[in-house]
């Protein structure tokens, strides 16, 4: 079990990065626009299309060149990726997310190969951060909008947990391709 402590530490670190970034942003917005920021129902009703936009210089005290790649654009996401399934009750999505996380944890600690563990830890840590938002607010706090100057804007707004989930999935697929013989043998078992 000792060998899994590093993966537990990675899960906790990813969860903490997601939680702390959201806490910082929510606190920033609450100080600027009031505690209604914490109410996903009010923000979703008031800012359904635009959300709340802030500049990097306001949030971190300087631009640091980030404004040409990312905006801070706060929205509550009631659904999953790209706001899909936003009509589903938050408790149903929460139960589904919790079941998926439990399944991933079981797989990580009981069945996974070495090359699968780091990506799974990233995915689980990010999913836990989003699950906590769902349980606390009924929606997930998203605030990063990726763009290239005024030329192109990514169609979704996301958070640090989403970044780790996406990176984990990509890393998992790359590792699976590199280790495809092991994967095929495992599928044959």
Description:
- This protein is an alpha+beta fold and 189 residues long.
- It has one domain.
- The chain contains 7 helices and 4 strands.
- It has helices at residues 5-33, 40-46, 56-60, 90-110, 114-137, 160-178, 180-188, and strands spanning 52-54, 70-77, 140-148, 152-158.
- It has a 4-stranded antiparallel beta sheet.
- Helix 1 (5-33) runs parallel beside helix 5.
Strand content: 5-15%
In total, the number of domains comes to 1
**Could you estimate the helical fraction of the residues in percent?**
55-70%
Separate helix tally = 7
Shape: globular
Overall pLDDT metric: 80
Derived structural class: alpha+beta
Low-confidence stretches: 45-49
Keywords:
189 residues, 7 helices, globular, alpha+beta, 4-stranded antiparallel beta sheet
Layout of helices and strands:
Layout: H1 5-33, H2 40-46, E1 52-54, H3 56-60, E2 70-77, H4 90-110, H5 114-137, E3 140-148, E4 152-158, H6 160-178, H7 180-188
Antiparallel strand pairs: 1-2, 2-3, 3-4
Please sum up the structure shown:
60% of the residues lie in helices and 14% in strands. With 189 residues, the chain is an alpha+beta fold.
